[in-house]
């Protein structure tokens, strides 16, 4: 009925320069917000119809927040008030810099300026078995799958007769102690203490183990050693087993094997160990820097092109202060998006562009209820409740402009006083599609 | 790995009488709330891990509310404060009244008292084609599928070149003008007026048609003629095309054909035309009354059994006042659950049971923002804003005890002042699995 011949991008012709933005993350939306439909025709492509506030995605996975609290439809964000703005929900096939064309599943589009803001995806370092069996946490569907898996593991642990299987259902292994891994581990530890014993009075939660595994010699490696030390102490106080300098060798869906031979049986392995750029076909391979990022100059121009830019996590900009590129967090993406908007306006007026200069506002991570760590400019390190308040304010502040703010706030306040999570609904049971017996179990017990 | 041999229901032995409740709807939860673990061991089975406030399910389908606002985990509702209560997420195979046993996928369980509270499911009157291609609205996954379909139809209408296909994407046919159909039609009409033109500036929403189709001669047939007339007027004022005395002959996924020959091309047909009891194997066929319900006496006892009860929508209790049984809404289920709890306590004390007497509090339906109709006891009929306020208070009142209350309230207040819906996220694109081309389209464009 509907096939590709009957579809087209349906973007109006224009005499203004056309800016095509690929990706509605922090970089893309901040660029569009600062551009005007009076000067440019702006086209945004994304394979999702929403912008996500990914720093809170772990909350969706641990049943603290629903997706609508951390995501906002892009069409709502850029509604009819945005002149000559066109969003298309579409998958990109590639770019052709020679003809200045973006290729999509339903047709090609000429650009005057192309902005690649595609961000990153999970990096399994080529280990297909780990990719197949572990849970990553980069998208809302992934977070909902992980949430279903967590809840189903408690249900299944309640009804299994085999103590070994029960233990493997109650062993949770989180690989990678960056912010996502740390926040996930802290959140699970709080559920174990405050929520789960009430829900599952028949289960012995002293047998539930949370392992946080990191290849380097400290947790939160991008933060200061002070923050790392505080974080590890907080986590260990909460009963998380932190394993440093430990690398995963393999995971077959039942047993994690670490380099060196140690093994843990676990049904739930969360992979938060690294990301790589979500690249687009059509750019020369020699532009791809470490971490699968695209090399750009200090104007975010992709090396060798005047009209192609990359911003945010996908961009690798080497500067004196940041010889390994900027950190892969929201701030560089936001600032690059805003800065590039100014430079595009300069370009069409034939004015020289200005260099991007990253203003480091510091970094924050939350470990649990009223506990966080912060590295602030001026070598200032905070911990505990003060850092938690800072974390809360920064996140609420950046959610401004989102309707979600209200929901997030009321949820946070509610949880603060009650320790309660309201969203422990198994909406679509997670089915590990490669494991026939598991599938049989869940399909026969399917909930819908 | 996990197979059925390794699982068991794992319910502790007991010397108390064991009450097994099948279903965590309004009947089941109100029964359990009034029973005490001091007198009984209480076991609840459900194939979902949550209780849903289904009168608001249409809000999930039209992106007004997220699932957590209308559903509550059963384990949270009956937590450790409920002595000797045991919830199991499990699918029921049947009952054996001779051995007093409930059979599940993972083992059998003996009962002293069995309460069937399984409610209803959509009734397609044997029309398999309609069942295959239309959307029903009885469960959260169904509501989320319908939401995805609605949002995708606008996205696809934005990019199709073929005006016939665009029109069929913008034709929405709702079959059945009961409360669900009416609320769905009203909600879609409000989206068309207040929300969609901002999101899709390139689409001409004067071409979006909402058809509400009813086989009988008025909308809301269970309510008073006054309420029906008011409702039809409100709907028509909002631009809904109401088609009475109209029956669906067939729907092949592209064209709805009505009895008499009229046809409408539509990609989205919502089936809200009827329900039938969600029966359990093992009871004699002659007990099944009209609408697939189980015949009970005025103690909710299933005919012929002293120890099997049915409550709520699944129960057919013929009384002088209600010769066709009680209406299929929340109130009879709530009252029967509460009443049966008292009777079970009487039974174990060898006291005589008391008859169930339904207290009709009236009925309510909402048509749109600040418009509703109400039939109250004493032949009192309300409409407009007053009925809407009544609707709001009744729904908020029955959400008390739910955390959701807060979320629902804040969402409602927010929407009241902004006309805004925050949850237009296509989280898991709906795939019409029987249509190869559509699947190809969506799978290749999949969002996750």
From TrEMBL, chains A, B:
Keywords: FAD, Flavoprotein, Membrane, NAD, Oxidoreductase, Transit peptide, Transmembrane, Transmembrane helix. Gene3D superfamilies: 3.50.50.100. It catalyses: a quinone + NADH + H(+) = a quinol + NAD(+). It comes from the Bacteria. Its EC number is 1.6.5.9. SUPFAM superfamilies: FAD/NAD(P)-binding domain. Residues 361-416 form the External alternative NADH-ubiquinone oxidoreductase-like C-terminal domain. The chain crosses the membrane at residues 380-400. One of its GO terms (molecular function) is oxidoreductase activity. Residues 18-337 form the FAD/NAD(P)-binding domain. Belongs to the NADH dehydrogenase family. This is NADH:ubiquinone reductase (non-electrogenic). It comes from Larkinella bovis. The lineage of its organism: Bacteria, Pseudomonadati, Bacteroidota, Cytophagia, Cytophagales.
């Amino acid at each position: 009925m509907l096939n590709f011949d009957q579809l087209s991008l349906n973007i109006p012709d224009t005499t203004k320069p056309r800016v095509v933005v690929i990706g509605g993350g922090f970089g893309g939306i901040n660029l569009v917000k600062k551009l005007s439909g009076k000067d440019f025709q702006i086209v945004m492509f994304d394979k999702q119809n929403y912008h996500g506030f990914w720093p809170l995605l772990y909350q969706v996975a641990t049943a603290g927040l629903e997706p609508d609290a951390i995501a906002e439809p892009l069409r709502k964000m850029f509604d009819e008030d945005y002149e000559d703005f066109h969003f298309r929900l579409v998958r990109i096939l590639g770019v052709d810099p020679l003809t200045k064309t973006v290729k999509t599943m339903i047709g090609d589009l000429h650009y005057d300026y192309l902005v690649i803001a595609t961000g990153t995806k999970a990096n399994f370092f080529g280990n297909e078995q780990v990719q197949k069996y572990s849970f990553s946490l980069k998208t809302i569907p992934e977070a909902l799958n992980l949430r279903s898996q967590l809840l189903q593991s408690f249900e299944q642990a309640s009804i299994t007769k085999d103590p070994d299987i029960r233990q493997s259902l109650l062993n949770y292994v989180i690989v990678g102690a960056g912010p996502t891994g740390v926040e996930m581990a802290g959140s699970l530890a709080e559920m174990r203490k405050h929520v789960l014993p009430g829900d599952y009075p028949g289960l012995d939660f002293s047998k539930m183990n949370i392992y946080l595994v990191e290849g380097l010699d400290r947790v939160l490696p991008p933060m200061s050693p002070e923050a790392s030390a505080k974080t590890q102490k907080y986590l260990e106080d909460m009963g998380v087993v932190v394993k440093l300098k430990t690398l995963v060798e393999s995971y077959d869906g039942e047993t994690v094997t670490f380099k060196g031979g140690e093994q843990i049986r676990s049904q739930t392995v969360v992979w938060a160990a690294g990301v790589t750029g979500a690249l687009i076909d059509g750019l020369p391979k020699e532009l791809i820097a470490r971490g699968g990022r695209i090399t750009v100059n200090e104007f975010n121009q992709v090396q060798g092109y005047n009209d192609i830019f990359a911003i945010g996590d996908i961009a690798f900009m080497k500067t004196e202060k940041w010889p390994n590129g900027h950190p892969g967090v929201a701030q560089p993406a936001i600032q690059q998006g805003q800065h590039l908007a100014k430079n595009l306006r300069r370009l069409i007026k034939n004015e020289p562009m200005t260099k991007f200069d990253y203003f480091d506002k510091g970094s924050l991570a939350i470990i649990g209820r009223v506990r966080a760590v912060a590295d602030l400019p001026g070598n200032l390190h905070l911990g505990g409740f003060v850092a938690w308040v800072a974390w809360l304010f920064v996140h609420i502040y950046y959610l401004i402009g989102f309707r979600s703010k209200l929901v997030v706030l009321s949820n946070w306040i509610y949880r603060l006083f009650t320790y309660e999570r309201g969203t422990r609904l198994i909406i679509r049971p997670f089915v590990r599609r490669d494991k026939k017996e598991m599938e049989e179990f869940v399909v026969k017990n399917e909930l819908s």
